């Protein structure tokens, strides 16, 4: 297993593993919410190094994976529209829509561009006043400031040919939905550090209280993740439930209020469909009516499209933490990163892709 | 796509009107990042950058540590232009 020798702090990793082992007397199911954390846990082999009593359940925290099929089809529809350039993050490239992906659409001549930042799409709109530029704005709270800011910049530049097709998701309502789900028995959450860098920690306090569940906001490195797990186990073994910040050296309790102000200036909460999971109340962001001119849904009169997911892919169960990717009959066979049946096989933050790449490295 | 990557502000320019944009150095890669969310940022500061926007300040030691980690584990692919060109992998 080549990854074991690659840690920068092998002793520290060992030390935490031993401490977790020592602290754990009962079985605990812990969910790391964020796909970046799943990726790190799987890639670094930590999933196999923890004591058997610790069951890691991978959360739905991959925005690419939970973007609904119907919205991807809307993006495809716009991409094939004359005079429209549909832009998004590179991760959205291969996500399968009902019939094709954006990558296939581009090969067929549709107007599709991929950018690192929505700001590049604003520039494209500025340079091409005769084109309609639509940014397919997916993401969690970490990405919402950039997407919102692109609209404010477009407004400052006086552009009327830039708009967002939004499919934004929020962590706290999804945590609540997971806790309400009778089939998932989660004892503690590792919270997503990057999300809290923007949102702060305050909004997690009521979840800890309402469900008496510990949440530890955690970073992405092996040592961070192990320390977060240890902090969760310590609380659980003592029977307490608190909000703790393992990542305080990066994430201030208050997050970034200026970034939140930009989010709430442009967006408001909405009921959001999560691919494979369904609608979670208040778990998404849509554009405020004041920004209707920058809302692709309004601009192009897009009809809502609820499209059922493929029967073959069990992504819903994987995203809810009921099953692990290798439990899927298509995993690594009919479904691979180059030929994904479902979205969790597409993004490197998707659980199925993370497990697939791990198998390649062992 | 959710990772925020720490980098050092090399220079700040007034892009258009009131919009401030920085050149941020990530190892050997230089990218532009908008500073609207951290108006207090100065040259030499370390910032967490996500999708072309600086989302928060971060101290130097932490920035260097996190960056080294991302570099080691392939967390920098979002920054690379080839990602767009060759379709993401
Ligand atoms: S392996 Fe493929 S088909 Fe199976 S759940 Fe994951 S994405 Fe869906």
Write the layout of secondary structure elements.
The complex is a heterodimer of chains A (362) and B (89).
Chain A (H helix, E strand, L loop, with lengths): L9 H14 L4 E7 H9 L2 H4 L4 E8 L1 H4 L2 H11 L4 E5 L13 H6 L4 E3 L3 H10 L4 E8 L4 H13 L5 E8 L1 H10 L7 E5 H7 L5 H7 L3 E4 L3 H17 L4 E3 L11 H10 E8 L3 E10 L8 H4 L15 H5 L31 H11 L1
Helix pairs in contact in A: 1-12, 2-16, 7-8, 8-13
Chain B lengths: L4 E10 L5 E7 L2 E6 L11 E5 L2 E5 L2 H13 L8 H5 L4
Antiparallel strand pairs in B: 1-2, 1-4, 2-3, 4-5
The structure holds iron/sulfur cluster.
Classify the secondary structure makeup of chain A into a structural class. Answer: alpha/beta
Bulk shape of chain A? globular
> Which shape of chain B, going by the Cα principal axes?
globular
Report the sheet with the most strands of chain A, covering strand number, pairing sense and barrel closure: 6 strands, mixed
Alpha carbon gyration radius of chain B = 13 Å
Describe what this molecule looks like in 3D.
Chain A has helices spanning 10-23, 35-43, 46-49, 63-66, 69-79, 102-107, 118-127, 144-156, 171-180, 193-199, 205-211, 222-238, 257-266, 296-299, 315-319, 351-361; strands at residues 28-34, 54-61, 84-88, 112-114, 132-139, 162-169, 188-192, 215-218, 243-245, 267-274, 278-287. Chain A is α/β, with parallel strands linked by helices and 362 residues long. Chain A folds into 2 domains: 1-313, HypD, alpha/beta domain 2 (Rossmann fold), CATH 3.40.50.11740; 315-361, no CATH class. In chain A, helix 8 (144-156) links the parallel strand 5 and strand 6. In chain A, helix 1 (10-23) runs parallel beside helix 12 (222-238), helix 2 (35-43) packs parallel to helix 16 (351-361) and helix 7 runs parallel beside helix 8. The N and C termini of chain A lie close together (5 Å). Helices cover 20% and strands 37% of the residues of chain B. Chain B contains 2 helices and 5 strands. Chain B has helices at 60-72, 81-85, and strands at residues 5-14, 20-26, 29-34, 46-50, 53-57. Chain B has a 5-stranded antiparallel beta sheet with strand order 3-2-1-4-5. The longest helix of chain B has 13 residues, at 60-72. Chain B is globular, with a radius of gyration of 13 Å. The chains are: A alpha/beta (362), B alpha+beta (89). At the A-B interface, helix 2, helix 7, helix 8, helix 10 and helix 13 of A face strand 3, strand 5 and helix 1 of B. The structure holds iron/sulfur cluster.
């Amino acid at each position: 297993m080549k990854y074991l020798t690659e840690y920068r702090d092998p002793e520290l990793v060992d030390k935490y593993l031993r401490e977790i082992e020592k602290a754990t007397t009962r079985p605990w199911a812990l969910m790391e919410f964020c796909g970046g954390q799943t990726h790190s846990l799987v890639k670094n082999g930590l999933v196999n190094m923890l004591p058997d009593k610790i069951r890691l359940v991978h959360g739905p925290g991959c925005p690419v994976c939970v973007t609904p099929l119907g919205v991807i089809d809307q993006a495809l529809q716009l991409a094939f529209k004359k005079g429209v350039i549909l832009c998004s993050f590179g991760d959205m490239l291969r996500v399968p829509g009902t019939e094709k992906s954006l990558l296939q659409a581009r090969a067929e001549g549709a107007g599709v561009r991929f950018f690192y930042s929505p700001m590049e799409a604003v520039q494209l709109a500025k340079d091409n006043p005769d084109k309609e530029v639509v940014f397919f704005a997916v993401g969690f709270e970490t990405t919402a400031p950039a997407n919102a800011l692109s609209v404010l910049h477009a407004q400052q530049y006086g552009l009327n040919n830039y708009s967002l097709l939004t499919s934004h998701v929020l962590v706290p309502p999804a945590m609540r939905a997971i806790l309400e789900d009778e089939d998932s028995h989660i004892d503690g959450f590792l919270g997503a550090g990057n999300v809290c860098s923007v949102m702060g920690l305050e909004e997690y306090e009521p979840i800890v209280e309402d469900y008496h569940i510990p949440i530890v906001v955690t970073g992405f490195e092996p040592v961070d993740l192990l320390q977060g797990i240890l902090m969760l186990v310590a609380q659980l073994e003592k029977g307490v439930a608190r909000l703790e910040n393992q990542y305080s050296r990066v994430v201030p309790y208050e997050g970034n209020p200026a970034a939140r102000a930009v989010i709430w200036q442009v967006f408001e909460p909405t009921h959001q469909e999560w691919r494979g999971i369904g609608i979670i109340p208040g778990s998404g962001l849509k554009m405020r009516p004041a920004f209707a001119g920058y809302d692709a849904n309004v601009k192009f009169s897009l009809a809502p499209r609820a499209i059922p997911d493929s029967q073959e892919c069990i992504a819903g169960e994987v995203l809810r933490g009921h099953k692990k990717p290798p439990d899927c009959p298509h995993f690594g066979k009919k479904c691979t990163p180059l030929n994904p049946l479902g979205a969790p096989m597409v993004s490197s933050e998707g659980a199925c892709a993370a497990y697939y790449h791990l198998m390649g490295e062992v | 796509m959710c990772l925020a990557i720490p980098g050092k502000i090399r220079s700040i320019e007034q892009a258009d009107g009131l919009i401030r944009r920085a050149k941020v150095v990530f190892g050997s890669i230089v990218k532009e990042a908008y500073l609207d969310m951290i108006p207090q940022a100065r040259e030499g500061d370390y910032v967490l950058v996500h999708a072309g926007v600086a989302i928060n300040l971060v101290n130097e030691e932490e920035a260097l540590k996190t960056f080294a980690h991302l570099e080691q584990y392939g967390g920098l692919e979002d920054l690379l232009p080839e990602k767009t060109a060759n379709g993401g992998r």
